[in-house]
Design goal:
- The structure is a homodimer of 408-residue chains.
- By secondary structure, chain A is an alpha+beta fold.
- The first copy, chain A, folds into 2 domains: 10-113, Phosphorylase Kinase, domain 1, CATH 3.30.200.20; 119-405, Alpha-Beta Complex (Aminoglycoside 3'-phosphotransferase, Chain: A, domain 2).
- Chain A has 16 helices and 12 strands.
- The first copy, chain A, has helices spanning 10-16, 19-25, 78-92, 121-126, 134-148, 156-166, 170-181, 193-196, 200-206, 209-224, 260-281, 284-311, 325-356, 362-365, 370-390, 397-405; strands spanning 30-34, 41-48, 55-61, 64-65, 69-73, 100-104, 109-113, 119-120, 228-230, 239-241, 246-248, 255-257.
- In chain A, the strands form 4 sheets. In chain A, strands 1-2-3-7-6 form a 5-stranded antiparallel beta sheet, sandwiched between helices. A 3-stranded antiparallel beta sheet of chain A has the order 8-10-11.
- In chain A, strand 6 and strand 7 form a beta hairpin.
- In chain A, helix 5 (134-148) packs parallel to helix 12 (284-311), helix 11 crosses helix 13 and helix 11 (260-281) packs antiparallel against helix 15 (370-390).
- Chain A is globular and about 60 Å long.
- Chain A binds chain B through residues 151, 156-157, 159-160, 163-164, 167-168, 170-171, 173-174, 177-178, 182-183, 185-187, 209-210, 212-213, 216, 219-220, 223-227, 316-319, 321-324, 326-327, 330-331, and chain B through 151, 156-157, 159-160, 163-164, 167-168, 170-171, 173-174, 177-178, 182-183, 185-187, 209-210, 212-213, 216, 219-220, 223-227, 316-319, 321-324, 326-327, 330-331.
C-alpha cells in the first residue's frame, strides 16, 4: 500500500485488511482511539468492543514533527529504523520488547502489543515507586542487545549487514549530534532561552571550554564509533514498567554507535530522578534505593556482558587460539570497564543538555518553584561536569555513586 | 554489459565500444598486452600501434584470487570499491591519482592512465633511490584524502552516504582482520610455516600475550572506528613514483576506517625498508635519508591536516561558535597527535605481520642469506613491539625515530 496518513477511522479500515490483525481480534468489532503521548508520531489504541482488554497499539510516523506541525519536517523513514530495531531486539531477547503484530516500512506503521498494565517509568520514579526487578531486567536487556549486535559476537559480514540496515538513520543521528552534544552548550535558538538569558550559570556553562572540549571527544565518539546497535534514546520515558515487567519502547533513534551511549542515557536519567528527590521530595529512602539501583544496573550490566562474551569461544575480534585464557579475561574486563567509563561520559553530556537545551526532563524542568528548579539545575550541572571531566579515569561503580552523593 | 572475463583479445573488442577510449586513441590501431604484476586481478597494457607512448591500463577483477586460481574465491566486487575510491580520491586531489578513462562496476573493470615513467616505490627504495619530493606529495595525499572524507569536514548525511558506498567491502576488510591482526601472531596454516616451525623467535612472538593484547585493541579500532575513507593498503607497493611525481594506486581495500591505518601502513613500509638497508646494504646515507623522510612524512601530514581543519569554520563535529579559538586549536592539535599515535600502533601490527604472516615484503622475506634474513626479522619484531607497546604514549616524531634507531 502506498503511504498515506491514517486517522482514527482509516486506521481501522487499514488494519482490517491485515491477516495478523484479523487473527488477533477474531470476530470482534474493533475501535480506535488516539492516545496523545507521541511527540513525533500518531499513536492509536485499537481495541475490541466486546473485550476491551484485547488491544493493540498502532503507531504511524508522519513526515514532520507531530507536536510542532508540518513546518518542522522530519522524514517519516525514522519508523523504518524503529521497525527494524524492534525486530532485531525482539529476536535477541523477547522479554523486554513489545510483541509486534504487524509492521509496514512503506506505511511507516507498526502495530504492537498494548501495554495496559505498565506506566512510563519516569512517572513512576517521580512518584517514588520502587521497581525492585528493574536493575535485573534492564541490565539483561542492555548487555544482550549491545553484546549480540557488536563485533564481539557477529561475524565481520553480519556486522556490516547490520550497519547497512541502520546507516540511513541520518536525520535522527544528526538531531542527537546537535541537540545533545552542541546547542545546549552555546547560545542557540533551540535552547530554553527564557531560562538562559541573563542566567549566570548558563553563561558559566557556555564558557566552560575545558568541559566543552571533553564533550567534543564524546560527540566524536558518537559520530564515528561503530560498536553495536543502540536503542539510541534510552531514557526512562522509553521504558514501560510495572512491579514485574520492563519493556523498552520507541527505538526510532537506533543506529550502530558506541556501547556507552545507551548505558549512559539510562544512567543520566536515573541521576536526574535522584536530583529531583534531593530537591523536591527529600525522600532519603527512595534516594538510597535509586543509588543502589544505579550501582546494580552498572555492575550487573558488566557481569552479564562479560558472561555472554565468555560463553563465546570464537569471534570476529578474537579468533580461537589467539589469546591464552588469562590474557583473554584481562582484556575482556578492561574492555567492559571502558564501556562503563564511556557511559559515564555520555551520561554527563545527557544530563547537562537537559538543563538549558531544547528538551528538558520532567524531573528538573518540571519543578514549578523557581528556586528549587535552580537548585536542581545546579546540581545536575555539577554532577554532569564531574562525569564529563573524569569519565576516563573511573574504575568502579562506587566511584560513580561518590560523585553523585558528593555533589551537594 | 553483463560481466564476463576478458582476455587479451576481447579486452580490445570491449574497449572499442567505449566512447572515451575511442576519443583517447583517435583513429589509431590498438593492441593489448598482459602485464603480470597483479596478484588479484588481470592487468593489460593497451596501447597505440602508431604511437606506443599513447597507452592505458585496463584492470579487471575476477571472482577469485588470480595468483592462486579459482580454488581461492574472492568476490570480484572488490573492483567496485576500487572504482569508487579512485573516483573519490581523484576529486579530492587529482595530482596523486591515475586518471580514470572508463570504469564499469558491472564488468569489474577500470581503464586508466598508464604510468610508463614511474616504478613501484618499493623497488626504487630497495635500490637506494632517494625521492626528495615524496614526503611533500604523500603528506598532501594522506592529509587531504583523510581529512576531506571524515566527519571533521563532511556533513553528517554526506558522511553516512560515503559509508554506505564502502560498507559492502566486507571481504577485503575481513582479509585484513585475519591476515594483519590475527593469524601472523599464532600457529596458522596461512603463515610462512617453513620459517615458523621450530623458530624460537616465532614461538616467542606467539606467546607474547602482552603484545597480542595491545594488537587486539588496534584490531578492534580497525573493525569499528569509522573516521574516514581509507586507501586500506597503503604500502610502498601501492605507490608508483619517479623523481617528480607520486601516484597512489590499487585502493581496492578502501573502506571507512580509522585515520591511523593508512599513515601506519606507510610508516611500517618505510621502516621495513630501513631495516633492509641496516642489514643488507649498510648504506648509512640512505638510512639517514629514510629516517628524515619518515619524520617529514609524519610532521607534514600533521601540519597539513591541521591546516585543512583550520580553514573550515563550521563542521558537523564542531559547529561555529561552540568553542573559542584557543580551545579549538588545543583540541585539534590533540586530535592530530592521537592520529599519529594510532598510526604508530598500526605500523607495529603491519611490520610484525610481515615477518611470519602470509604476505612477506621483499625487503625482509626477500633476503636470500638466512642469517641476514633472521637479523632483519628480529629487528622488525623489535621495532614492531616497541611501536605496539608504546604507541599511545608517543608525543613527537622524534620519539618514533628514536625507537627505530635504538632497535639495534
Amino acid at each position: 500500500m502506498n503511504y498515506k496518513v491514517l486517522d482514527v477511522n482509516s486506521v481501522i479500515e487499514y488494519l482490517l485488511t491485515i491477516k495478523a490483525i484479523e487473527t488477533f481480534f477474531g470476530s470482534d468489532t474493533i475501535k480506535a482511539q488516539e492516545i496523545g503521548d507521541g511527540n513525533l508520531n500518531y499513536v492509536y489504541k485499537v481495541s475490541s468492543e466486546q473485550d476491551p482488554e484485547k488491544a493493540l497499539i498502532a503507531k504511524q510516523a508522519v513526515p514532520y514533527l507531530r507536536c510542532v506541525g508540518e513546518e518542522f519536517p522530519l522524514s517519516r523513514e525514522r519508523m523504518t529504523f524503529e521497525i527494524r530495531a524492534l525486530d532485531k531486539f525482539y529476536k535477541i531477547f523477547p522479554n523486554f520488547i513489545p510483541k509486534v503484530q504487524h509492521s509496514s516500512e512503506e506505511m511507516s506503521l507498526v502495530v504492537m502489543e498494548y501495554l495496559g498494565n505498565h506506566i512510563i517509568m519516569r512517572e513512576g520514579l517521580i512518584n517514588g515507586v520502587k521497581y525492585t526487578k528493574f536493575s535485573e531486567h534492564i541490565s539483561t536487556y542492555m548487555s544482550a542487545t549491545l553484546f549480540y549486535t557488536s563485533s564481539l559476537a557477529l561475524s565481520s559480514s553480519n556486522k556490516r549487514e547490520l550497519m547497512d540496515k541502520f546507516n540511513g538513520n541520518t536525520e535522527l543521528c544528526k538531531l542527537t549530534e546537535d541537540l545533545v552534544f552542541s546547542f545546549p552548550f552555546m547560545e542557540h535558538e533551540t535552547n530554553d532561552n527564557e531560562n538562559v538569558t541573563s542566567n549566570p550559570n548558563a553563561k558559566k556553562l557556555f564558557e566552560d571550554f575545558e568541559f566543552k572540549e571533553k564533550v567534543l571527544d564524546l560527540k566524536y565518539k558518537f559520530m564515528t564509533q561503530s560498536d553495536a546497535l543502540l536503542h539510541g534514546d534510552l531514557h526512562t520515558g522509553s521504558i514501560m514498567i510495572n512491579k514485574d515487567e520492563t519493556y523498552v519502547i520507541d527505538p526510532e533513534f537506533a543506529f550502530v554507535g558506541p556501547f556507552g551511549f545507551d548505558v549512559g542515557a539510562l544512567l543520566a536519567n536515573l541521576v536526574n530522578n535522584y536530583i529531583h528527590h534531593c530537591v523536591v521530595t527529600k525522600d532519603e529512602e527512595f534516594k538510597e534505593w535509586l543509588l543502589q539501583t544505579i550501582k546494580e544496573v552498572l555492575d550487573k550490566f558488566s557481569e552479564k556482558f562479560l558472561q555472554y562474551w565468555r560463553e563465546l569461544k570464537d569471534s570476529a575480534l578474537c579468533v580461537s587460539g589467539y589469546l591464552d585464557d588469562r590474557t583473554s579475561e584481562v582484556y575482556k574486563k578492561r574492555f567492559v570497564k571502558n564501556i562503563i567509563r564511556d557511559s559515564v561520559g555520555f551520561a554527563g553530556c545527557k544530563m547537562a543538555r537537559r538543563v538549558y537545551g531544547v528538551a528538558g526532563v520532567a524531573e528538573i524542568r518540571g519543578i514549578q518553584d523557581v528556586t528549587l528548579r535552580g537548585e536542581a539545575e545546579e546540581l545536575a550541572l555539577k554532577i554532569a561536569r564531574e562525569f564529563v571531566m573524569n569519565y576516563d579515569k573511573i574504575n568502579t561503580s562506587d566511584e560513580i555513586l561518590e560523585i553523585i552523593k558528593n555533589a551537594r
